[in-house]
Amino acid sequence: MQSELDKLIEIMDKKGMATYFTTFGKGASKYGKRQLFTKTPEPLATVWTWKYREAKELLHEISKHLTPEQAERRTIHFINPSLKDIPVLGSAGITPTLYGGLQLIRPGERAPYHRHTAVNFRLILEAPKQGAYTTINGYRIELHRGDMTFQVPWVWHEHGNEGDSDLIWFAGLDAPLVAFLGGMFYEAPESKEDEEHIRKSMRGTGEDANKMFGKSVKPVLLNYPSYVKEFNTTYNPLVYYPFDNVINALMVLSSKGEMDPYVGYAVEYVNPLNGGPLFSTISTRMILLPSNKALKPIRRVENAVFIVFEGNVTFSIEGTEQIKAEPHDVVVIPSWKKYSIENDTGSKALIFKYSDSPLFKYMGVYRESFE
Asked: Which pTM was predicted?
């Protein structure tokens, strides 16, 4: 028989109201609510992995049925199964805040210009020796395996493949977060004339951007162009990080000192203007794990995505069977899950990681636990 309290809570629910007892407190489960105050984080996402071989096969299959003109961007999205029934997140969320997926551009194809408020990075997994490119914010960047390109909010970007083999990259965005919060804007050129106008407003090459901003210097000029004058904490002018720079830094790091037992040999992709993360919503790093080495278990308040770039490793994650990961496989580890990574092979492993840790740090709730 329904109690007076039950009746009152039902009335409140119909009127879009609730009480502490049913949301923050112990009565949440009784009334089908998710308790907000928990002793430790209880993330919405779940541990999951996607095999690159399987995803790549499906990417090629879908490309037979979707032309570049139809699709605009020909992709495979990785959807966290725990999020699939949540609006917005269920169509693009590898975690509640992050998107992750693969994009294919075949030889002779082009992905046309557009821009959006969600930030975006691309880790190049496969590329022809020559001819693959992206144009971001007026810089044309030649793409090679291991390079990482990106764009900040609301800058025009297009991609193309003039080479002789497929171009495939892993893309990461904060689109689920931006859309969920109600901050998404998107625009494409309305005509060929508009697109041609964008194409003509070139600033240079990716090498030009790196020479200006990637050598521990930045220009000090009175006649800054407007895009420099408008720098803020979210703006990163580099547009790409060449793989050679990353691997060279890791080789020097690994030859000069002992490996951090929890992090491995790792380099962070930083914003040269402020020394902060790649974006205000996403941090990125490349990890070198030498042969027959393992990282000690750790917990972090972050939703993390790992892409095995090179080698074979094993993820040991709390409450989950071990995950054996090969090159380009993707593994998601939600917030506060204890995990470790092991390389028990005879060769080094490279692991790319991105996460939403800047959000938690900005809010002052980021934590780590070393065990």
From this structure: 0.94
